[in-house]
What we know:
Blueprint: E1 2-3, H1 4-9, H2 14-20, E2 27-28, H3 30-64, E3 74-78, E4 81-88, H4 91-102, E5 109-116
Parallel strand pairs: 4-5
Antiparallel strand pairs: 1-2, 3-4
Amino acid sequence: MISKEEAAEHKMSSKAFEEADTNGDGKLNKSEFVKAESINERVQVAKYVDDSVITAKVKAGLFKHSLLKGSQIHVETYKGAVQLSGFIDSDKQVAAAGKITAGVEGVTKVINNLIPKNND
């Protein structure tokens, strides 16, 4: 039997633990543990898939914004942290890109490495 605390020490999410604890005793037997590991693995894989979705949403948001349309902004995402890079026209565009990115669901951190060509 494994307790919730022991499972947490092995990086198992509480959601996976609770979902797998079918008898509700606060502990996982062998079959519940196997189920919890499977659930936890799916959650981890989903996080990485989410990075590509986040990148796409950020790019779409940047493209839709009138001030940024046509800008060459490179977007990379890793575990929810989004890095923006490239050269754009102004400080206003840098700020707008950062604000749009921060507003995208799933973004945990914005690393704004955009460089303005002209300060305004």
